[in-house]
Design a protein that fits this description.
heterodimer; A: mainly beta; 10 strands; globular; B: mainly beta; 7-stranded mixed sheet; 51% strand
Chain lengths: 112, 111
């Protein structure tokens, strides 16, 4: 992913609504994708992952969708809560899995 | 508790004074990595290691060195820090085929 400057893409949602965060990845050979959540003052935290042989994976309140045709990844958060407010990063591992490349991130605001 | 521990959390230093940021993980992970995070530039990989004595450059390795003499430790060395290395640094580790566990970060200021 490319940097979008100091102003991260921002998504603002009402508490209780569903959130969808999108990400375009860069390498068609990438075979493993991860979503991370970063709260203020902390390191990124693993949320959910998906391998290239899948197109959907569900966790607790989160779902990741992978569309390899258009190199697109999305994170869906159900019933968004104030504690979900953070910056969300997608990341991709290329073949061999040695290098992990992060997208620019999306800031999620949850309005009470 | 499974974790990645990096020290120090905060560091202010002067240009040219060698420094080392330590990183240790207690999860027996094969892979370790250093990232820097800058406003507007996201997380960029500096160096990574696939196992003991096996390291490789990431996207922004200039001005940094690493070593992996033991599986649990992966120190980041700045031989001659410069102001453009002022940043927030994260160490991370992971097993093969999985995502990273990150440390809490080291905020470095070089004056």
């Amino acid at each position: 992913g490319e940097s979008v400057g100091l102003h991260l893409p921002t998504l603002s949602v009402q508490e209780g609504d569903n959130s969808i965060i999108n990400c375009a990845y860069s390498n068609s050979a990438s075979d493993y994708f991860i979503w991370y959540k970063q709260e203020s003052g902390k390191g990124p935290q693993f949320i959910i992952d998906i391998r290239s042989n899948m197109d959907k994976r569900q966790g607790q309140r989160v779902t990741v969708l992978l569309n390899k045709t258009v190199k697109h990844l999305s994170l869906q958060i159900a019933a968004t809560q104030p504690g979900d407010s953070a910056v969300y990063f997608c990341a991709e591992n290329g073949l061999g899995g040695f290098k992990t490349i992060f997208g620019a991130g999306t800031r999620l605001f949850v309005k009470a | 508790e499974a974790q990645v521990t990096q020290n120090p959390r905060y560091l202010i230093t002067v240009t040219g004074k060698k420094l080392t940021v330590t990183c240790s993980q207690n999860m027996n992970h094969e892979y370790m990595s250093w990232y820097r995070q800058d406003p507007g530039l996201g997380l960029r990989q500096i160096y990574y290691s696939m196992n003991v004595e096996v390291t490789d450059k990431g996207d922004v390795p200039e001005g940094y060195k690493v070593s992996r003499k033991e599986k649990r430790n992966f120190p980041l060395i700045l031989e001659s820090p410069s102001p453009n290395q002022t940043s927030l640094y994260f160490c991370a580790s992971r097993p093969a085929g999985s995502g990273y566990t990150f440390g809490s970060g080291t905020r470095l200021t070089v004056v």
